[in-house]
Write a structure and sequence with these properties.
This protein has 232 residues and is an alpha+beta fold. The chain folds into three domains: 61 residues; 76 residues, no CATH class; 51 residues. It is 41% helix and 13% strand. The chain is built from nine helices and four strands; from the N terminus they run ββββααααααααα. The chain has a four-stranded mixed sheet, with no helix packed on it. The longest helix is centred in the middle third of the chain and has 14 residues. It is elongated, with a radius of gyration of 29 Å. The N terminus and C terminus are likely disordered. Keywords: DNA-binding, Homeobox. This is Homeodomain-like domain-containing protein. InterPro entries: Homeodomain-like_sf. GO terms for molecular function: DNA binding.
């Protein structure tokens, strides 16, 4: 970094900060939206830290800059989403587990909810994660959906934000590919290659476009290998 150059780093406080020694503190404090911003000078850069306002007061960082890791952020979110089950909800979850007829994921989520219930066993997320072989993020997701959407949403697997990409070749198109691969190769060729098959599928308007690798994966899946693994 050149003489007199400064690098700016931006970081939001989400939990208890970790101490970092600072060289000095600039006197300026100013408000940005609903947050206060304090500028502090470090040895080689100026660190601008945005912190939530507390009843209109500027929080005093005392020369400290937060450096949060993933576990601390998860812990912060865990405290935000507190699971409190009613007696009826506990009875329903226990009944669901005892019957054992629901999907495996649903039963696992039911067990997690019973264990992390703040008015019940009040297990930590780490304990629930280890007991039911799921990640901490899964436990947090169950907490969040319970608080925001209710019990039924917490029991179900989290829905995808985007629909899955449909396969290029469905069952019918795979069958047509197989028929082509088993047919006589084009004139001038001793055998079908992956590239020839891909071009044939496009020429017959079976697909708009397809790669030789996709053709190869499809043929392997059907245990048909009429050609060498060659793109040429």
């Amino acid at each position: 970094m050149g003489k007199g150059a400064r690098r700016y780093a931006h970081q939001r406080i989400a939990a208890v900060p970790i101490n970092v020694s600072m060289m000095g503190t600039a006197p300026d404090k100013f408000r940005v939206g609903d947050k206060y911003t304090q500028r502090r000078l470090c040895p080689s850069y100026a660190c601008v830290v945005e912190v939530p306002s507390l009843n209109g007061e500027v929080p005093n960082l005392n020369g400290e800059v937060p450096n949060l890791n993933g576990e601390e952020i998860l812990e912060m979110k865990t405290k935000k989403y507190i699971v409190r089950l009613t007696n009826e909800e506990r009875a329903m979850l226990k009944d669901l587990i005892n019957k054992g007829k629901a999907a495996v994921t649903k039963i696992k989520h039911a067990n997690v909810l019973l264990k992390i219930d703040a008015d019940g066993l009040n297990w930590s997320d780490e304990s629930a994660s280890e007991a039911f072989s799921c990640s901490l993020r899964t436990v947090l997701s169950i907490r969040q959906r319970f608080v925001e959407q209710g019990l039924e949403a917490a029991l179900e697997r989290k829905k995808r934000e985007y629909p899955p990409t449909p396969p290029i070749l469905d069952g019918e198109k795979e069958a047509r590919l197989i028929r082509i691969a088993c047919s006589k190769p084009p004139e001038g060729f001793a055998r079908w290659t992956l590239r020839l098959l891909a071009g044939k599928l496009v020429a017959l308007e079976i697909v708009e476009s397809i790669s030789g690798q996709t053709v190869m994966r499809t043929l392997k899946k059907t245990n048909l290998n009429p050609i060498k693994a060659s793109i040429g």
